[in-house]
Amino acid sequence: MENRFGIKDLILYALIVLLMIMVWLSMVQRDRQWERLVALQQAVDGQTRDLAAIRRQLSEGIALTSPATTRATDPSQDPFARLKAAEQMPGFARGDWLVDNFGTKVPKLTPLVSSDVYGTIVQNRVLESLFYTDPYTLENVPLLATSWQITDHSQAWNQAYDQLQRRIMENPQAEAARPDLGEDLKQAIQKLADGQAQDVPRELLVLHPDLPIAVEIAFQLRRGVLFSDGTPMTADDVLFTFEWTMNPAVNAPRARAYYQKIRSVEKLGDYEVVFKFREPYFESLELAGGLQVMPRHFYSQYTPEQFNEHPGLLLGSGPYRLRNPSGWRPGNQIEVVRNERYWGEPTTFDRIVWHQVEADAASMTMFKNGEVDLFGAQPEQYRLLMKDAELLKRARNFEYESPISGYVYIAWNQKRGGKPTRFADRRVRQAMTMLTDRQRIIDELFLGYGRVASGPFSPQSRQNHPSVSPWPFDIERAKTLLKEAGYEDRNGDGVLESPGGEPFRFRLSYPSGNELYQRVVLLLKDTYARAGVALEPDPQDWPIIIKRLDTRDFDAISLGWTGGIETDIYQMFHSDQVKDQGDNFMSYINPELDRLISLARSTIDEAARMPLWQEAHRILHEDQPYTFLFNRTSLVFIDRRIHNVERTRLGLNFVQRYVMPVVWFVPADQQKWSR
Fold first, then answer.
1. pLDDT tens-digit readout, 291-316
2. How far apart are CA 562 and CA 631, in angstroms?
3. CA angle 631, 467, 461 (to 5 degrees)
4. Domain ends where: 9, 31, 63?
5. Which residue in 612, 656, 563 sits closest to 126, CA to CA?
6. Which terminus of the chain, N or C, has fewer Cβ atoms within 10 Å?
7. Looking at residue 503, what is its pLDDT?
8. Exposure class string for 478-491: b at 16+ Cβ within 10 A, else e
9. Which of 179, 212, 245 lies at the terminal end of a domain, its last residue?
10. Distance of CA 84 to CAs 286, 348, 405, Å?
């Protein structure tokens, strides 16, 4: 057979070669365009940084004519020192997105009225505080404030407090007749006069108007700060934030539980405010400096009722903003975008996105597919992914215990519908803890990544009582306690009954969508059944969980608390937090614990304060309002395209739960979301 190559074939080959050349040229041109785009983005970033620096310099009155006239900056006082250090790293670039998954449906983003960690994480990118805590040094770094001065009147206050107590006891009728005292304070005065000092909450007596100011903290505010809509921040916004928080019509009982320590916030000038504390408080500086400033002009448009009901009111001065500060609704995508008007060093990522996929397996699949950049793994997932060689080429793994990681617990509701429950009996609560095989849960379900908790304080904290050890797993001892409390199997059906014949059945509520939680609950169900206690699993969506906590409509509930460097447990365990949807949602009351918490909070000297916390730990161990389950080890994977990820004293060097600059970045040639 003869092969022929004609003119048509020549033309066809020529067209193919021409097409290949055109494709190659197109690819070269595209690469050049991408390089130019990156260069343009870097130039814009540089101009943005320069403009931000100029705004800061102008606001601080620094001359711009000569570099020699510019003041030197103390790195420890520069809020963006670590971000600037990142800018000097090889490959540093701005741009791209940071994509994460919350693992639950988020009900609210509005500050103060959102009551979960997820809303807080979003708020911490949009709102800013007067200072933030450096995760390496744990020092306070100025942010919206440039400096502060503390005036401590604690000694004089303590003397005045003692004199007030003596005066009341000498002439209670005169005090009770004063028209300027509230009814609660008058009742406290009467109890004090009747010799019932142990029944008088310190939180009531410190409201007495005759007591002097205990501590004053004056903040110099940073000039040139703009909210994301362009409105300047002044002292009026700080005052508004405090007054709005303390407004009883605003549904903010958790914040008020702490800020009630402050008698007033006063304006000394457009850029100076002073916080005046009604009593000594060991975290007075952290409380005042941690106030996240809300813009008055935006939030004052709403009545307290509108504010309480709106799920997505979020506007601040931070490096990110919502596209529509009043437009977010539950079910919507959660994302914040770069604030072009940001007063400080421009942030690294163009956008931060949080998915709301609840199933653990789906969340892991998203990470394996590269749909998210971070993944907090369950232990079995962690072990599985650590065997995935291809994944480990793309992702780094981190294991760490942090003082702020907190603990998981079961709360036993002691009052429901205004009536005591079976869990109002301490013996029953102790028995439930001894029926909970916590070490088995850690070993079998968490694969050893955790430790049994004995109370609410971090294992690394000096707040822990040195002689307190977790209750043992002891079914027989638990049965004995339950029998002492009146529970026996009276009809032979395998379930204990009360003296009135009511079966010991209860529902354990917990967040749905978490497969590991489900396995823990099933293990507990089997173990409890061995003692004649019937557990009914009750998985619920997160918004329903929040509603049940607020209405106290549950038998028992399993959740977790994040922790702190030194944890103030007033919010969770003081009896004052039973009312007004406070976080003592299990209606636990112990007057001696109240006294210790109040005294510890007002003790400035750390050496004197720690024994008080330790005694509080001992009481909580005996009372078991929670079964403290375990402190977990964080198991985290992060995509390797995210650079400058480091370990610190608080975990990683970008703590999402805190207000702080984002120091992670993605080199330009590895950016993908913004292309």
1. 999 999 999 999 999 999 999 999 99
2. 10
3. 45
4. 63
5. 656
6. N
7. 97
8. bbebbeebebeeee
9. 212
10. 25, 11, 28
